[in-house]
């Protein structure tokens, strides 16, 4: 039975804002305090989902986590009813912002996923990322795991693991540092893990910004998922690029099927990495390696060229890039040539500016899950995007989301009420039942 790739996009939550929470993510740092537009953010994300659905791709929606996370604020010692907790927490704006971030929208960081063709027990395996490097993101894994279990419920087809131990040695950022290459979606493929540092041994690592992913974490996931070591490749990200703002591998590389599109500075000993991928793939790896002479790392980070989605089309690939790529002359020139002499047949630009200002481009907003037809039929049916679901979700956003939100608005008890009301209704639209703690 044929397998295909499905994209599970994170729906942007009602608290989307710019709190400058991610050191090493240049967009997040530079947009601190700017007013956000949660309504536009959610609609931009939905428009991306719709564009891919319209082109015939399997497209699904993952609901946002409940924010502000009042339970987390209580764990930090803020007391009283919900409104009192928020007012008290407002005196510690960094903590309130961390507990209010809509960062679960970047579902490339939700989990690492291995398709059933790659795993020893023939199930699709999921390990939620522990995201230990950033306080606001470290609050995600438990609830994310709960949502993944609700969306992929069948234990015969889907295996769910707990997030790795919440310690820096096992820093794990999920699919953002994991690429699956294969000659065909349904055939055993190569799982390619990229880490920033080892986790237990000293060695090459960035000086300025953190290496969020460790090799120890990637190795643990490969074991948990029952991957074949002959088809598993580990590579270190070049520390200098992390220091230049490449906080995840998906900011400097993207792969799909037998194609790898990356910057020449992405990896330590890149030639050896390509050779290993080629050997593991057992077929010829197609590579588009962009030299610094064409596009500098700084331009790649600014434009988010490599955070594009690479999708299979007849006889090649479609590149779904952020609009910022069309605005940068060097990137625009490069992309114009790309379709002439590479397997990339078409480039589609989309406006995802609201998410981009927090360092989240097209690829950050989606979790890729390769599924057979039977596995697809075992997914909670209500999460698939359809024409009708798209219309209902847009109307739902228009009804519940604010069009302006600043970090100081996070203490507003009305925002919590609005958000919970919206999420309660959303679980009905997606047919997911009571997934949020406030619904229990
Ligand atoms: O973890 N930004 C996210 C962006 C994640 C992008 N994901 C991938 N590359 N796959 C992060 O740094 C910023 C939130 C703020 O500053 O308000 C934030 O969390």
Structural class: alpha/beta
The total of helices stands at 17
> In total, how many beta strands?
15
**What percent of residues adopt helix (DSSP H or I)?**
25-40%
Bound molecules: N~2~-(3-carboxypropanoyl)-L-arginine
Mean pLDDT over the full residue set: 97
What is the beta-strand fraction? 15-25%
Strands of the largest sheet, in order across it? 2-1-15
Low-confidence stretches: none
Return Rg in Å. 20 Å
Largest sheet: 3 strands, mixed
How many angstroms does the end-to-end distance come to? 39 Å
Tell me, briefly, the overall form: globular
Describe the structure.
Strands 2-1-15 form a three-stranded mixed sheet, with helices on both faces. Strands 3-4-5 form a three-stranded mixed sheet. Helix 10 (270-281) links the parallel strand 10 (259-263) and strand 11. It is built from 17 helices and 15 strands. Helix 2 (38-54) packs antiparallel against helix 16 and helix 16 (387-400) packs antiparallel against helix 17. The model has no long low-confidence stretch (mean pLDDT 97). The chain has helices at 26-30, 38-54, 70-75, 82-89, 93-100, 135-138, 141-151, 215-224, 239-243, 270-281, 297-303, 324-327, 329-341, 353-356, 373-377, 387-400, 413-429; strands at residues 3-10, 58-62, 111-114, 124-128, 158-160, 178-181, 190-195, 232-236, 253-256, 259-263, 286-290, 309-313, 316-322, 344-350, 366-372. It has 440 residues and is an alpha/beta fold. The structure holds N~2~-(3-carboxypropanoyl)-L-arginine.
């Amino acid at each position: 039975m044929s397998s295909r790739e499905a994209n599970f996009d994170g729906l942007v939550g009602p608290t989307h804002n710019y709190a400058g929470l991610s050191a090493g993510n240049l967009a997040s740092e530079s947009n601190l305090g700017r007013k956000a537009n949660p309504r536009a953010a959610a609609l931009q994300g939905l428009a991306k989902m719709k564009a891919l659905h319209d082109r015939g791709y399997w497209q699904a929606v993952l609901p946002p986590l409940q924010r502000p996370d009042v339970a987390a604020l209580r764990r930090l010692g803020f007391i009283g009813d919900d409104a009192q907790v928020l007012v008290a927490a407002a005196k510690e704006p960094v903590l309130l912002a961390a507990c209010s971030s809509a960062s679960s929208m970047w579902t490339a960081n939700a989990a690492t996923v291995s398709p059933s063709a790659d795993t020893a027990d023939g199930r699709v395996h999921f390990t939620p990322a522990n995201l230990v490097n950033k306080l606001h993101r470290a609050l995600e894994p438990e609830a994310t795991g709960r949502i993944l279990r609700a969306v992929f419920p069948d234990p015969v087809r889907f295996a769910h693991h707990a997030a790795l131990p919440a310690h820096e040695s096992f820093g794990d950022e999920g699919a953002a540092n994991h690429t699956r290459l294969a000659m065909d979606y349904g055939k055993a493929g190569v799982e390619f893990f990229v880490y920033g540092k080892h986790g237990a041994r000293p060695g090459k690592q960035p000086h300025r910004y953190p290496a969020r992913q460790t090799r120890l974490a990637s190795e643990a996931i490969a074991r948990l998922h029952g991957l074949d070591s002959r088809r598993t490749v580990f590579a270190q990200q070049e520390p200098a690029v992390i220091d230049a703002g490449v906080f995840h591998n998906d900011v400097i590389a993207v792969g799909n099927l037998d194609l790898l599109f990356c910057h020449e500075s992405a990896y330590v000993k890149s030639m050896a990495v390509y050779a290993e991928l080629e050997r593991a793939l057992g077929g010829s790896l197609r590579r588009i390696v962009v030299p610094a002479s064409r596009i500098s790392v700084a331009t790649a980070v600014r434009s988010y060229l490599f955070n594009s989605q690479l999708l299979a089309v007849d006889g090649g690939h479609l590149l779904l890039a952020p609009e910022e790529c069309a605005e940068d002359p060097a990137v625009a020139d490069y992309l114009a040539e790309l379709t002439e002499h590479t397997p990339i047949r078409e480039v589609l630009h989309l406006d995802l500016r609201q998410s981009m200002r927090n360092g989240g481009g097209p690829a950050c907003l989606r979790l890729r899950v390769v599924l057979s037809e039977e596995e697809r039929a075992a997914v909670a049916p209500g999460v698939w995007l359809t024409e009708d679901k798209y219309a209902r979700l847009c109307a739902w956003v228009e009804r519940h989301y604010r069009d302006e939100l600043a970090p100081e608005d996070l203490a507003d008890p009305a925002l919590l009420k609005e958000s919970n009301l919206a999420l309660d209704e959303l679980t009905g639209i997606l047919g997911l039942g009571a997934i949020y703690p406030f619904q229990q």
